[in-house]
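Sat 14:20. Reprocessing the chain from the morning session after the first attempt stalled halfway. Input below, unchanged.
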Amino acid sequence: MSRGRVVVVGGGLAGITAALDCAEAGARVTLVEVRRRLGGAAYSFEREGMRLDNGQHVFLRCCTAYRALLARLGSERHVAVQERLEIPVLSPGKPPVLLRRGSLPPPFHLAGALARYPYLKPAQRLSAALAARALSALDTTDPALDERTLGDWLGDLGQNEQSLAALWDLIALPTLNLPAREASLALGAFVFQTGLLASADAGDIGFHVGTLADVIGDPAERALADAGVEYRLGWRAQELKRTEGGFEVQTPEGDGLSAEAVIVALPHARAAGLIEPLLPRQAESIRGLGSSPIINLHVLYDRTVCEEPFAAGVGTPVQYLFDRSAAAGAPPGCQYLAVSLSGAEPEMELGAAQLRERYLPAIEALLPGARGAKVESFLATREHAATFRAVPGCAALRPGPVTEVPGLVLAGSWTATGWPATLESAVMSGHVAARAALARLAPEAVGA
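Finished this time. Tokens:
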């Protein structure tokens, strides 16, 4: 008996997850990806003898779907999760500060760290604690929360610009890819509730010890092959047509793949372009999500300049920096630091020389050891549309997996998962998209 066929368009986390789920259920699956590698927005590349990641994609202990996918891929050994949330915070001319959770139940697990936090005055610390308590009580499913910004709401509770920059943006920027003053209150409340307040250990940070190719791209190829998924790299899905039996996905050259169901797991702007002939109104809505960029700076020093594996910056343009020397294979005696800049619209206007001129002195102001060190290389990588723009009103624009065209399914971190555009959101979307696609196939076809 023949099995139902599913085509998955896009080889990122959402597409990989959906393809594995569909194949496990017995469908015949073909995954196509325009790039010559899997991993989507999380990938590695080689430069000057080192293997670098395009970005620093950390995750949290509460990201159970993403962590389960890594177990499925057999790449858990290439990641590590903190035993207890610790964020070293650096500021120019000041000693490092360690934000560390305690063992009490939430929200008291953060009380000690907040009480000793020197970048807020005593009155601001108390005000921040009261704001966190109020934040934990919000109903994140209330549509009204998506009508204002997290920063405005925090301002009503006494949080000024200094508090936003010194405390709240430490979490908002890397998770929402926007500062609190611009981000949706609904998504901001979800992040703080889920990542910091749901349980004491929910916010423990997970790191990719290996490169993203080690963690995602390479093991995904093996897992898909083992599951019987046919994957085609360097294959551009240019056009999507309805046929009597379902759909045909075509390349610019006219090559085609037929299937009863198609899962479009592309970045939202590309997904909108592919589905527009069939779903013009939904395509227009998806484009309304906009985009928010991320820049990563890759700096190789001739010596060790930072003793921390990672650190956050306050009172500096440096948001987060990471020691990626071991993963990248930095030359002996050298240290490779990656600086991650979220919500980087102003920085997108700067060339590499301007970024170097601005950020090398900023790093030196944080790390005294960098002041006498030689910079062996400096590189900037840019993700112009790294995520959708998590501003008020975005919830109404994020679609679910099922469309008005039966059998045409959407997946991606930009769909309506409840999460912001994160690794976790991408994997979650892949699971629900697979269920929707499988439901379209004849019950007797799946599992045959």
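Residues 102-197 form a domain with the Guanine Nucleotide Dissociation Inhibitor; domain 1 fold (CATH 1.10.405).
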